[in-house]
Amino acid sequence: MSAFLEALRRRASEGLIPVIPDFKMISPSEGPLFVGRDPVAATKDMVRAGAPVLSVVTEETHFGGSLELLRELAAAAGVPVLRKDFIQNTEDIRETAACGASAVLLICAAMEADTLRACYAEALKLGLEPLVEAHTAEELRFASGLGCPLLGINNRDILALERDGGTVGLTAELAALKPPGAFLVSESGLQTPDDVRRAIRSGADGALVGTAIWRAEDPFAFYRALSGAEVGP
């Protein structure tokens, strides 16, 4: 088990919802998220708020990220970090490892199947944990077929830059396809503790939340509310 996945499972064993805070500088639908905010300081504060891992978006044009941001936050975090981007080839995987990430997002919708398989294999070779993201039942079946222990359902269409208004309802629809033993992350479109609760009740094991955290009056208190949400029966 990788450090990234182990940290998520440990969080769940503590009776808390494993919420991955997503560090993206810009939301394509809502605009800049980090104006007047120091990402390194925010990283340290988020870890103090209990984040077991972090996600860092490195795509520059639409999300305002960079590899330098990944290096800085990975160095500052002290917890495993996921790189989120439109990974295209094995060179991107090697670049990810060199920047200090522990895990890398592989998006089914963003690459051909053979390319994704090659990137998956390269990630494992370099000690990176692949988080394979699906948006449809067909993609989730493909990801499951890789034997990947860490799967994601993006509730929004990443190829539309998450402007499609998707909700946690997609997780509720697809979670039954999760293979036994896999850890499933519900990504995007989660706005409230109720959304996180619904994702977990539907069969997800964790959640990735970005914009809603950074739009909150107190992002770190909001993070604690998300991860401490009572799921109930």
What is this entry, summarized?
By secondary structure, this protein is α/β, with parallel strands linked by helices. It has ten helices and ten strands.
What labels describe this entry?
233 residues; alpha/beta; TIM Barrel; two-stranded antiparallel ribbon; globular
Please explain how this structure is put together.
The protein is α/β, with parallel strands linked by helices and 233 residues long. It has one domain (3-227): Aldolase class I (TIM Barrel), CATH 3.20.20. Helix content is 39%, strand content 18%. It has 10 helices and 10 strands. The strands form 2 sheets. The chain has an 8-stranded parallel β-barrel, surrounded by 8 helices. Strands 2-3 form a two-stranded antiparallel sheet. α5 links the parallel β6 and β7 (129-134). The longest helix is centred in the middle third of the chain and has 13 residues, at 113-125. The model has no long low-confidence stretch (mean pLDDT 93).
